[in-house]
Design a protein that fits this description.
The complex is a heterodimer. By secondary structure, chain A is α/β, with parallel strands linked by helices. Chain A contains 27 helices and 9 strands. Chain A has helices at 13-16, 19-25, 53-58, 62-70, 110-139, 144-149, 155-166, 181-199, 208-211, 219-230, 249-252, 257-273, 314-318, 329-343, 354-359, 365-373, 389-401, 403-414, 438-455, 465-472, 476-493, 510-527, 534-554, 570-574, 577-588, 617-620, 635-647; strands spanning 43-46, 84-90, 239-245, 279-285, 310-313, 565-569, 592-597, 607-612, 631-632. The longest helix of chain A is centred in the first third of the chain and has 30 residues, at 110-139. The radius of gyration of chain A is 30 Å and the shape is elongated. By secondary structure, chain B is of the alpha/beta class. Chain B has 2 domains: 2-75 and 241-310, no CATH class; 81-238. In chain B, 46% of the residues lie in helices and 10% in strands. In chain B, the strands form 2 sheets. In chain B, strands 2, 3, 4, 5 and 6 form a 5-stranded parallel sheet that branches. In chain B, strands 1-7 form a two-stranded parallel sheet. In chain B, strand 3, helix 10 and strand 4 (206-213) form a beta-alpha-beta unit. Chain B is elongated and about 65 Å long. Chain B starts with a helix and ends in a 16-residue tail after the last helix. The model of chain B has no long low-confidence stretch (mean pLDDT 92). The chains are: A alpha/beta, B alpha/beta. Chain A binds chain B through residues 453-454, 457-459, 461, 489, 492-493, 495-496, 511-512, 514-515, 518-519, 522, and chain B through 1-2, 5-6, 9-10, 12-16, 18-19, 22-23, 25-26, 29, 50-51.
Chain lengths: 672, 326
């Protein structure tokens, strides 16, 4: 093995890695908390980019299931939960999202007719995909899966299935002339092709055979599932899961199609509302892209959580909690980490604590402070002119050994009611280091380190397993990206060293990790601008972070060590829906993370708090650890940030200035 | 070497320049993989780029100088093989084609315009001005055929008998000449060739196409055009004044140039390594004619680029060692 390859180069397991590699890289440890995904009933899988949605949904893909069977690797889901077949549609790749870019019927209102065609396209695409899945299972992996699931997809049974299905009223006669399975398949292909030809302006009209046989969304899928069971192709206990990928793209449609986007979502929601015992839908979506009360097309009703669908919130599931023992992300990350190393042919990967073995525990806060100061420990403290010289000498003396303690001592002296210490220097353990003040110290350590680094003109160091996991913020994509950049930084250091055949896993130096973390953070900051509306979000984050950093850095008394985040009251926020929606978008796109905030104010008005996505903290020189209270900010501050972020954005096109023409008119103006 | 790597990590983690060093590191990583590995004079038994890079940084007598060397690297304009290929194509499809259309006086709405231009190629002679121009690649990339002889005109100017050349032009029915050069600095190197072309009695229309030209070369081109009515110069890529690190500061130069200027001056004694200018065969801290070039071609480093980039001495290791003619 060439040790110079980076095991984390491929960030996205589910999208770019082939099915056979997926089998080796997929981490089943996340499944424990997502078992609803393999139980009958509709499921909405919610999470920000990189939270693992696509990875989980990939398990429903027939190609992945086959890859497990072909590689003799046990499928991560077993027993009753494994008795399913999967089919689906990717709304972008299938072309479904292109509905609305061409007028379907000039004589009818588009908003009236478009959703029907959209639903019809969905039906045919998904039914076709169900057939493809059956064929894949029948022909792939030497029929092992077909045997395991007791599929009986022989020609006679398939023809019988078609015979049953074609008579259903849901098709409105479109399948009347179909007699065989092949004919059925062809008929579906033709219809999909007609749609795609029309949407891509390769034909002038949709054929009448389509115009007169539009189906109701979900119904043909349900009928297909029922017919598969009744004709004996599918055993009764094998469930059909239908994936709807790229659901959130329907929100991003712009211009006139924005309105269609919400109608299309209602159409998909309608399929979920049908509640067929043989079919369940699986939708992966970013957090706020899923409405709290999703409307159903053609009704005034909404989908109801737990009645129409179960919600799996991956962000919530993987988010760090007060009690670190209940935090499941480290175990997930550990498993992903080990699998990547094994896939890259490292041979001494430990069965547990591999992340810690590679990244170590990281320097202690005291060591970090010493490293920031180097030989100039005095820079850790800032002395006031009116302080007695002895107090200054005392702090500087402490700083020589323990600059962090000296900085905390400085803060202690600046805090309200504690100032008398400048005249009463402690003989033994300084008061701020006493056990009874351990929380005071703990809450201020990160802010103090940030200030020491700044005073010493150093960038903060993030290193060690805890820091890497903390910066990942419960997002597996960020974790892998951090590992990727750290690995790259390490590979640079071994350039020229003969390690070609060394397959032992490295213990990475803290400095290498720190360099890699800063690179990863810069990468994620730059990435903010990539998607639609990204530049505004990026500027907003820049404005917020700069403000927070400045205030935190200048808080000499360390009175507000939790001010690396901000909080506003919900009632104030609700008055500005555009700001609320923008903040939600920032969370969805991984710029900010949010959480409810239990206020300490006497008015008890409910609040919400926001922090930078932890991986952005190194870029902005802000501690990622959340401690104490965030900064209570008035809504006008947020509005000002939002306004400034927008103002710096692309300006609407303005009328070109009229230029003075010195050229005479071609035609003489008639004199009156 | 590890000491330098440690130092670079330390630089990245320092403020206020740490983020800039981080960007430079990533930039250099990328270019090393994409471009620097193609530098021809170091192919074969030469140290690979990263080794040269570390040796080059070690030239700095202190950390500040090493950091300035490090920051200078992204300012170098490295023209790799793909970029050269594109310059060949643009030269032909844009500069030469438009000149031919002018020469033939073909109206732009002539439906057979391209046919006429293609036909004219049979009577056009494409030659290099010096042997550094890869005329063979130019012919191949642009699918030009039909000429066996493609001499460089600097050699012709020195060795050829004008009457014989005139006879050749007549025998082969050559109606116009296109002379190409990959890089023109001040123009002094190619001047004898241009003068030779301009002085031929046949007075054939001649196009000079520098693929890359410095501002002083543009000035020289104006003089050639006014001295020889049959000569036109149409460069492909004109470098701006701000692309050069001149001895005297310029108003529009990038802010880093102040540090780089001082670096060129401070490092020069070490660069010479005790030799005189003549012994070292270099012209000064800012290169030939004080140009202060920051250009490196994959084929070689021009002598008007800063010598601290390409010159080697017992006390200075070059990053892109120049294959010198002298």
């Amino acid at each position: 093995m060439d040790n110079r390859t980076n095991p984390f180069n491929e960030l996205y397991v589910s999208e770019t890695v082939g099915s056979s590699a997926f089998v080796q890289i997929f981490s089943p440890s996340i499944l424990r908390n997502a078992s609803a995904l393999f139980l009958p009933g509709n499921v909405v899988l919610k999470g920000m980019q990189g939270s693992g949605k696509s990875m989980l949904l990939s398990l429903l893909k027939p190609e992945v299931r086959l890859a497990y069977a072909e590689s003799d690797t046990p499928f991560p889901v077993t027993g009753k939960q494994a008795r399913f077949i999967g089919a689906g549609i990717n709304l972008t790749r299938s072309g479904a999202i292109d509905f609305g870019q061409r007028t379907l019927d000039p004589e009818r209102s588009e908003t009236e007719i478009l959703p029907v065609y959209f639903g019809d396209f969905l039906n045919y695409w998904i039914v076709f995909d169900i057939l493809s899945t059956l064929e894949l299972f029948r022909d792939g992996a030497h029929g092992v899966l077909a045997k395991e699931l007791q599929l009986r997809a022989d020609p006679e049974r398939l023809n019988a299935f078609v015979g049953t299905l074609k008579n259903s009223r849901c098709w409105f006669g479109y399948l009347d002339d179909v007699t065989t399975y092949e004919g059925f398949r062809q008929k579906l292909t033709d219809r999909i092709n007609h749609y795609l030809e029309f949407l891509n302006f390769n034909s002038d009209h949709l054929p009448d055979s389509i115009r007169t046989t539009k189906t109701t969304v979900g119904e043909p899928i349900a009928q297909t599932a029922t017919a598969l069971v009744s004709s004996g192709v599918l055993p009764e206990d094998v469930h059909l899961f239908v994936r709807i990928d790229q659901y959130e793209e329907l929100i991003r449609l712009e211009g006139r199609r924005k309105e269609y986007g919400s109608l299309f979502r209602e159409v998909v929601n309608k399929a979920l509302s049908l509640r067929n015992p043989n079919v369940s839908y699986r939708i992966g979506t970013r957090g706020y892209a899923w409405d709290e009360h999703p409307r159903v097309y053609g009704t005034v009703g909404n989908l109801e959580r737990d009645r129409n669908f179960k919600l799996i919130d991956l962000d919530e599931m993987l988010r760090r909690r007060e009690n670190p023992k209940t935090w499941i992300f480290p175990e997930f990350a550990e498993d992903v980490f080990c699998k990547r190393l094994l896939f890259a042919k490292y041979q001494d990967v430990p069965k547990s604590a591999a992340v810690e073995k590679v990244f170590g525990l990281g320097p202690t806060p005291e060591d970090r402070a010493r490293r920031y100061c180097g030989k100039a420990s005095s820079r850790a403290v800032k002395l006031e002119e009116n302080w007695p010289p002895a107090w200054g000498t005392y702090l500087l003396h402490i700083a020589e050994e323990d600059p962090l303690s000296a900085r905390l001592g400085e803060a202690w002296a600046r805090q309200k009611g504690k100032g008398k210490i400048v005249t009463q220097q402690p003989d033994g353990v300084p008061v701020w280091n006493e056990y009874k003040n351990r929380y005071w110290r703990k809450e201020r350590t990160q802010a103090a380190l940030m200030q020491i680094a700044g005073r010493c003109r150093q960038r903060m160091i993030w290193a060690g397993a805890d820091d890497i996991l903390g910066l990942s913020g419960g997002n597996i994509l960020v974790f892998v990206s951090l590992c990727q950049h750290i690995w790259s930084a390490w590979l640079r250091t071994i350039r020229g060293v003969d390690v070609e055949y060394d397959n032992s896993i490295p213990a990475l130096d803290d400095t290498v990790q720190a360099v890699g973390v800063h690179e990863a953070s810069t990468h994620w900051y730059n990435k903010l601008a990539e998607e639609s509306g990204g530049t505004t979000r990026q500027r907003f984050v820049m404005l917020v972070a700069t403000d927070l950093e400045k205030r935190l850095y200048n808080d000499d008394a360390l009175s507000y060590p939790g001010a690396n985040g901000f909080s506003v009251t919900l009632d104030e926020l609700e008055s500005y829906p555009h700001l609320r929606d923008f903040l939600n978008e920032c969370v969805d796109y991984g710029a900010l993370v949010d959480a409810p905030h239990t206020t300490k104010e006497t008015n008890r008005r409910p609040r919400r708090k926001w922090y930078l996505n932890p991986v952005l903290s190194p870029y902005f020189r802000l501690p990622h650890v959340r401690t104490k209270e965030p900064a209570y900010r008035p809504i006008k501050d947020l509005l000002a940030w939002f306004d400034a972020a927008q103002r710096l954005g692309p300006q609407p096109a303005t009328e070109p200035k009229k230029t003075v023409q010195d050229q005479p008119n071609l035609f003489q103006e008639e004199s009156s | 070497m590890n000491a330098l790597k440690d130092k670079m990590q330390r630089w990245i983690l320092s403020l206020p320049h740490g983020p800039a060093f981080q960007t430079v590191t990533q930039h250099v990583e990328h270019l090393a993989e994409q471009l620097y590995c193609h530098y021809e004079p170091t192919k074969g038994a030469s140290a690979e780029f990263w080794q040269r890079f570390e040796d080059w940084l070690e030239n700095g007598t202190d950390e500040a100088m090493q950091q300035t060397l490090f920051r200078l690297l992204p300012s170098l304009f490295f023209i790799g093989p793909s970029e050269l290929d594109n310059l060949y194509r643009v030269a032909f499809n844009s500069n030469i084609s438009s000149w031919l259309i002018d020469q033939l006086s073909v109206p732009l709405d002539d439906p057979n315009m391209f046919g006429k231009v293609n036909e004219s190629l049979k009577h056009t002679w494409f030659c290099p001005l010096t042997d550094s121009m890869r005329i063979n690649a130019f012919y191949h990339l642009n699918h030009i055929s039909g000429r066996d002889h493609r001499p460089d005109w600097l050699s012709l100017a020195l060795l050829a008998e004008p009457t014989k050349l005139e006879a050749f032009l007549k025998d082969y029915k050559i109606e116009r000449i296109v002379l190409l050069e990959d890089f023109v600095g001040s123009g002094s190197q190619i001047e004898p060739a241009v003068t030779f072309a301009g002085s031929l009695s046949s007075n054939l229309p001649t196009l000079i196409v520098p693929l890359v030209i410095c501002p002083t070369g543009v000035d020289a081109a104006k003089v050639w055009e006014s001295s020889f009515p049959n000569i036109q110069v149409r460069p492909v890529l004109k470098l701006r004044n701000s692309d050069f690190l001149t001895r005297v500061p310029q108003t529009d130069e990038p802010p880093d140039h102040c540090d780089f200027r001082q670096l060129a001056i401070d490092s020069f004694p070490k660069l010479l390594g005790g030799s005189t200018l003549a012994e070292a065969k270099i012209y000064g801290p800012f290169g030939f004619d004080d140009t202060g070039g920051l250009v490196v071609l994959a084929t070689n480093c021009p002598d008007n680029t800063l010598p601290l980039v390409h010159h080697g001495s017992p006390t200075w290791k070059p990053l892109f060692p120049r294959a010198s003619r002298i």
